[in-house]
Design brief:
Length: 431
């Protein structure tokens, strides 16, 4: 595969952008190439790089592209919105429509505020929880990622893990001390800490963690969190930036029937444009400025183009909820075929999956938390990723991310994927 032009752009890029990329996970190298690919266009399930190579895309911009790239209806809505103007700094009716639509799909949300990213939404939700409870500390789970605000960058997942860190430099000790981290799914440790900790303002989690690879939660654990938060006056925050509108229209809270106090959303609600949201109970949300004194603002919050893309995306999903069943069925079939190959080639691997998300962990043990994920075979994963890339399939470059299947993936993509996985397993056995 010729990727010469990507290499040339990367040379240039490193001189002007740290690491040559605007988000660390994009800086992937494979066994055969020492620089990332630069993308020119996308359509449906495919990406096209600057050298003209075509790829089946299994990362979907890390979640937003549930309908595939450049969905015609979403594109039309965006074009219409562009003609109307791109940013006003004043409210629009569309923002109200999006808020109403989010509320309809998430009954736990009475009021919702739009932001420009998931990071910003999670940061605001935590600030709000502190103000509401008048307590200072945050409880989060090892390997869960909630964006890059200071207090949430402790034992975080995603790109941090990929580059071998769990915290970021530049965060004060005081901030770090206010964040308590626990292993995901460990009820005993949770109860132990809550018995001794009086200062916890919130527990924030990805109800379906997808930033340490995909982890499937136990319903009982989510229930316990709900009970304990109610008992101890702790705000339960579900960060559904990935799981929202992905595992179900109503997110993980609908799937597992658990009602959080606050919800953080992002990705799909912007239909591929920058957006985030935090929302929840009226009594908490009414503490946000200008009603209350918890400050949150944004020049581009509720940007009309982003909102138009999000509205159209959610409307398509709402009109045709079959999309979720079909996606789940297709992904399950794919995972079953991968599992058959695992057996055929005697590979030590296990696949976690839910809805249209999955992660292949190279270990014969169950993977239920960060410790388990870290113990899986990095070399085998890298061989898998590199082999897939050479075959024109973009899968997550790190075992700490999930594969995202979209509505636009067709039989040809699935056959290509399966052939690619088989080839990668042969390569793993040869290594
Ligand atoms: N929360 C979760 C669960 C995420 O996966 C992400 C991003 N991957 C974020 C928050 C941060 O969102 P953003 O990148 O839009 O700031």
């Amino acid at each position: 595969m010729n990727i010469k032009k990507s290499g040339e752009i990367f040379e240039r890029s490193q001189k002007s952008i740290p690491g040559g990329v605007n988000s660390p996970v994009r800086a992937f190298k494979s066994v055969d190439r020492q620089y990332p690919i630069f993308i020119e266009t996308a359509k449906g399930s495919r990406l096209y790089d600057v050298d003209g190579n075509e790829y089946t895309d299994c990362i979907g911009s890390w979640g937003p592209m549930l309908l595939g790239h450049n969905n015609e209806r979403v594109l039309e809505a965006v074009k219409k919105s562009l003609d109307e103007g791109t940013s006003f700094g004043l409210p629009t009716e569309k923002e109200v429509e999006l808020a109403e639509l989010i509320k309809e799909c998430y009954p736990s949300i009475d009021k919702v505020r739009l932001t420009t990213s998931g990071t910003e939404a999670a940061m605001a939700a935590v600030r709000l929880a502190r103000a509401y409870t008048q307590k200072n500390k945050i409880i989060k789970f090892e390997g869960c990622y909630h964006g890059h605000s200071d207090s949430l960058m402790v034992k975080a997942g995603s790109g941090l893990l990929t580059f071998g860190h769990q915290d970021s430099n530049g965060i004060t000790e005081g901030v770090m001390k206010d964040t308590i981290t626990l292993p995901f799914g460990n009820s005993e440790k949770l109860i132990e800490i809550l018995d001794s900790e009086e200062e916890a303002a919130c527990i924030i989690l990805e109800p379906v963690p997808a930033n340490m690879g995909l982890i499937i939660p136990e319903e009982g654990f989510l229930k316990l969190l709900r009970e304990k938060c109610t008992e101890k006056n702790i705000v339960l925050i579900f960060d559904e930036v990935i799981s929202g509108f992905r595992v179900s229209l109503g997110g993980a809270q609908e799937l597992f029937n658990i009602t959080p106090d606050l919800t953080v959303l992002g990705k799909i609600i912007g239909g591929g444009f920058p957006v985030g949201a935090f929302g929840g109970k009226k009594e908490i949300m009414d503490m946000v400025a200008p009603v209350g004194n918890v400050y949150h603002a944004g020049t581009l919050s509720g940007n009309p183009v982003s909102v138009s893309a999000g509205l159209e995306t959610i409307n398509i999903l709402k009109e045709n909820r079959e999309i979720y069943n079909t996606l789940e069925k297709r992904t399950k079939e794919l995972v079953l075929r991968i599992e058959e190959l695992i057996e055929k080639y005697n590979i030590k691997a296990t696949v976690n999956h839910i809805g249209s998300l999955y992660t292949i962990f190279f270990s014969d043990k169950k993977v239920e938390n960060l410790e388990d994920a870290m113990a899986t075979d990095d070399k085998a994963y890298n061989t898998y990723f590199s082999s897939m890339l050479e075959d024109g399939i973009i899968v997550p470059p790190s075992k700490y991310e999930a594969h995202f299947i979209s509505w636009a993936h067709n039989n040809e993509d699935f056959e290509k994927l399966i052939a690619g996985v088989e080839k990668s397993f042969i390569a793993i056995n040869q290594n």
